[in-house]
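Thread: quick sanity check before group meeting

JM: Hey all, I'm pulling together slides for Thursday and realized we never actually wrote out the predicted structure for the chain we discussed last week. Dropping the sequence here so it's in one place. If anyone has concerns about the input, flag it before I start.
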Amino acid sequence: MDSPFMTRAARSLAGSGARVARFEFPYMGSRRAGGGRKMPDREPVLRQSWLDAIDLVRGARSLFIGGKSLGGRIASMVADEARVDGVVCLGYPFHPPGRPDRLRTAHLESITRPTLIVQGTRDAFGVRAEVEEYRLSPRVRIYWIEDGDHSWKPSARSGRSEADNFAEGMQAVRAFLNLEGPPVRREDGGAADGSTI
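JM (edit): ok, ran it. Output follows.
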């Protein structure tokens, strides 16, 4: 929850007026306490951890949930059940690297909550050419970060900077949340869904 990426993201959103809360899954808490490198908890534990975290912040005017990679994936899996206002995934793990046959998209085909996925075009967990072929709910919007990897970092030859890619990704999130700036545009030209936080 306090990785450099998540700290920058939380500060960026808080600086735009959002109230930001972070938590970590039990396996990460165990790592922090010196328990060594543990595998992620089983899905029921991860889902319950998200639901428990949501219960702690209920009562907000609007409630969006999300996270980086696994955190965003599990957030998207509980979003309908928790009846949140929307979901933001910062680099979604559509499949394990090198295993495009093991998709993690079944729930994204029917999700009803507005969902924004900010994804690098060369993310090993799902590149643009692959993802554009997936059948996803019309509530899912994908904002592509050109030449970004799973953390939106560009290759050296791209001429883009990590700071610029990060700023672009966070602007897309702020627009989705209606915090500031123009709406995120879909590829078909329409505006993405969003609610005020």
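AS: nice. The first helix runs from residue 4 to 14. Confidence is low (pLDDT under 50) at residues 181-197.
JM: adding both to the slides.
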